[in-house]
């Protein structure tokens, strides 16, 4: 009997249930997948708490890696026995499971040299990092980036990628230990937001100019400081809302603070085109396979411990990537 984590109502981590499930045979366009490792992402908490509304009952999780064990009619992009990974949104919800049915379209064949565990830890984070570094802003050597949550999964990938491109990265962290991790993975400077004024410190580090771009995955508690850290005509990329969504913003504020730009991108819109998705995946997996970017898996959980995993994630106890090992 397969196992899965499901929820019957929106709420805190305690709403998650570890249950027996029937999987069945794949229908047209589907595959049956046996998971080896499953990704734990902050976005999972948005599905759980109702920020992203989905019909109940619902599966949990949108990223995993495993082996194709059966294919349905019309499936041509993968075959039985293929090692695959995936991430997505509603179309991949249900990753917290030992086996599942899933549409074949989102599946990505795993390159040689990438383990299941690495894939589960990096597919969403890696593709997110790829579109941030390659699609959002035309980064060039010498640019400066303020990176919130620099010791998190996306943060560690982005900081390493930015270093490869010659970008100065100022990373925000909450503890000295996280500062050490961020510095070891490409950050030039760190700011401990627990006791430092982020915008003031950014101005000091940039000789009063500010940064070209801010990647802000925290949201409500940081967005104003992010705006105040930008140089004239700089770009704020609100890529998450760990502290809650940004409140309604008066556009005139952007003009007052220096003709600033602001965007709220979503991964789904950057991997909707199969060709673009393949290009981004090839680049990030290539960096990892060749050792230019290292994926730090610092937390391993059993699937039955999903409640604790979500508690750890929301209390900011985690660093790097977290996965469930099946």
Query: What is the CATH C-level name of the largest domain?
Result: Alpha Beta
Structural class by secondary-structure content: alpha/beta
Reading the helices and strands in chain order gives: EEEHEEEEEHEHEHEHEHEHEHHEHE
Distance between the termini: 14 Å
Q: If helices are DSSP runs of H or I spanning 4 or more residues, what is the number of helices? A: 10
Q: Considering the protein shown, what is the CATH homologous superfamily of the largest domain?
A: Medium-chain alcohol dehydrogenases, catalytic domain
Count of individual beta strands: 16
How large is the share of residues in beta strands? 25-35%
By CATH, the architecture of the largest domain is named Alpha-Beta Complex
Low-confidence segments, given as residue ranges, are none
Shape: globular
Sheet with the most strands, sense and barrel status: 7 strands, mixed
CATH topology (level 3) name of the largest domain = Quinone Oxidoreductase, Chain A, domain 1
Helix content: 25-40%
Number of separate domains: 2
Radius of gyration over alpha carbons?
A: 20 Å
Q: Average pLDDT value?
A: 94
